[in-house]
Design goal:
single chain, cell membrane, MetI-like fold, amino-acid transport, 80% helix, 13 helices, mainly alpha
Length: 332
Amino acid sequence: MSAAVGGLALMVVLGGTTFVLAKGGMSHEDRIAAALQSSELFAVLVSGSLLGAVATALGFGTYRRMPTRISREEAIAGAVLGLQAALSGLVLLWFVHGDMERFARNFLSFEQIVPHSEAFLRGAGNTLVLAGAGELFGVILGLVLSLFTMSRRAVVRAPARVYINLFRGTPLLLQLSLIYFGLALGLGVNMSAYTAAILAFSLNTGAYSAEVFRAGIQSIERGQMEAARGLGLGYMQSMRYVVVPQAVRRVIPPLMNEFVILIKDTSLIAFLGLSYAQRDLFSVGSQGYSQYFNATFYVAAGLGYLVVTLPLIRLVNWAEKRMRSGIPGVGG
């Protein structure tokens, strides 16, 4: 009972708010402000909050009297859903009592974005290129470094550890600055901001990927290496044909997660002074804000990052489930 009430309450708050906004129209800031200040939205939020409070009271109140574990879990689920609905409704009620006209004018003026849609699309493409190139070269570098860090020879292992600790222990923004400005001013090595960004992302990703690969390789059962050596394979042959292929399968989800993080980190290149054709999503948003002094451009950039990253996050979650179900001893 409480689960149904809690689900209904959350649907009223979230679905009702979406319906009221869609009904009022999202094409102009005045319509958005009017929808946010409407009596319909107020009624929706109050109703949803009250339903949420009822579901919370029902869930926690009947939990101990439920005869089975399943019914107790349903009671807790209803209470949690109701609590989420009540808190969401109250927060939205507090929010809409502010100056919605000013908020919509500064953050939801999407009609100003339409003429710049091509720039945002180009920025999304540049973001993916920067992150994709950085991830590709970084993964290759990380695999090599991971093998070095597991060497029995200190002269091989030590430089790799120094490199990894150096790039993991310093901010990516500092690394971008040193590569782009430091090489040009200190050594006279001039490169475009785009090239410098890819180089910095690759070197930084290589350090993190090395640790991911090292953990993946060390998670392979020791008997795999021993069996390969027993068949007459050398150390490097055993790593190449037996251990590393199995490790790669295990490290795919964390490497994909690193790629998602790198997509967001591409916003750091905004200070390098990219050309119009090289701007990433955040740079496009920053340029629009500096031109119109309207934060809607930042909102659009944020939505662009979500469009790019959310499918990848779903893919990471799916891959993690596949890895857990296909690897003995991993997961449930």
